Amino acid sequence: MDLLGALENFATECNQNQRLRQMNRDWTRLVELWATDTDLRLWLRSDAGLISAGVGSAADADLKISAREDILREVFSGTITPTEPYNAGDLLVKGRQDDMMRLDIITLLIWGE
Questions:
Q1: What CA–CA distance (Å, rounded) separates 76 from 6?
Q2: Distance of alpha carbon 23 from alpha carbon 102, whole angstroms
Q3: Which long-range contacts (CB under 8 A, 24 or more apart) does 36-42 make?
Q4: 1, 37, 73, 112: most buried, per Cβ within 10 A?
């Protein structure tokens, strides 16, 4: 599965999880993902509990995440938790701390530990 496929699957899993939709009903954010090794830019949007994904830059993103493409794919497909590459310095996140924590909780609720 490529990175876009992983993000689309992530969005589907989020949207099918009623608990997450309820939790995120007041969280409207744009997240930009940058695969540093391929210069691929994608985005995730949370809008009143619904998640969507797409290709392209998001200059006005609330949260910016960068890593090698394989790391981003593994994080958003649930193969690894974001904590591992983040602590190793391989996953960089820029934005508000509460948005970072919310995204981490979302991945935890979808994929588990």
A1: 6
A2: 10
A3: 36/66, 36/67, 36/68, 37/68, 37/69, 38/69, 40/3, 40/69, 42/3, 42/4, 42/7
A4: 73
Separation CA 66–CA 102 (nearest Å):
17
By three-state DSSP, how is residue 67 classified?
strand
- What domains does the chain contain, in order, with CATH numbers? 3-111 (3.30.1050.10)
Q: How far apart are the first and last CA of the chain?
A: 21
Taking the model in full, what pTM does it have?
Answer: 0.90
Handedness of CA 11, 89, 102, 39 (dihedral sign): negative
DSSP 27-65: --EEEEEEETTTTEEEEEEEETTEEEEEES--TT-SEEE
Q: 73 is written with which tokens?
A: 């794919």
